[in-house]
Amino acid sequence: MTTFKLMVKIIMTSVLVNNYVLSKFLGICPFLGVSKKIDQASGMGIAVIFVMLLATAATWPIQTYLLDPNGMGYLQTIVFILVIAALVQFVEIVLKKYLPSLHKSLGVYLPLITTNCAVLGVTINNITDGYNFLQSMVSSLGCGLGFLLAMVIFAGVRERMEEADPPKAFRGIPITLAAASIVSMAFYGFGGIVTSLFGE
Amino acid sequence: MKKLKILTNGLLKENPVLVLVLGTCPTLAMSVSVINAIAMGLAATAVLICSNAVISLLRKIIPDTVRIPCYIVVIAGFVTLVQMLMEAYLPDLYEMLGVYLALIVVNCIILGRAEMFANKHNVLESALDGLGMGIGFTLALIAMATVREVLGNASFAGMKIGFLQNFRIPILTAPPGGFLVFGILIALVAYLTRGKAPQRKSFDCEGCPSAAFCRKEQGACGIANETEAK
Fold this sequence. Notes:
B: 2 domains
């Protein structure tokens, strides 16, 4: 398989088939918490793409060149979460100082992302899937795009849902989860698309 | 008596999954089968008890400004321990839990209990709270997994249930079923308690363990609440 074809396959898989939110259940908190308005949802999605790419760019070399050669692979969890947390704080400080306009639109979402399981999940999955650096970056981009897509679609659904009048016990969280279930069902339909397009 | 109350608090009154609605990611992902649910619940309980106890021991040493990173390091340490033990002694379960085992680090139940309980109480109380919350988490996971496995796969903990074989609802074991069953269970709790339980009402920042941290940092919570007010 050519490199380009492989990249397209990785992106298609992570955006549509193995969507991080809707089929792997990672990053549910921001997905349900910050999806009331479409503009907030897209801001959060873009911030997540940004952090996922940065986190992968930092953690992949650490695992490959620092932990694995020294037989310290078991420190993966501790090192990754610390690197991600430090990175997010650092990015926030840099944005605040040098790019205040970008900080205004993205910075507010950054503290929420530190303990977002989608970011930690994507860095760990890139290692367990045995991707090289380029493939890891592409896979992170795909996961981030999938997250953004799911957020924006779901925010659209929720804006419509506000006018609905569910039974009392279903108000709030339960009806939101039921709506998420329907959006997830839509993505479930993409199941066989990658194998039918690219073969096994 | 007070100790007993701390222990039972997490089981029903403040059940982390069905009342506080924390830790949604592992709940949805690991409730496909009862065995998965038990394994995930026990792993999280072990981490919860140990991290609560250690954080309570260190509560006077950790400076207030850097407490969240400190908690994360303690939790990540115990998660690594559990990972290594499971890989050595329960390799099948280790494979089954996969990445979700490492993701116990960012489970908001654990960080939430550290922030809300362990840094204000002594070691014994904190460990008991961890045990209660852990059992509450495990029971909620088992309840959800039972619904999904029995109706979706016509089996219970791997044993086939004969008469249900022709009435399976496979979508319940798929991701959409997870969201749906979780929503219905929370609605059921709201209905049975007639709204008297201190149940979390929405996915906004109330009840989120990192809310205090975010607000102080003028984070997304501040923004979400501002737009709400308008």
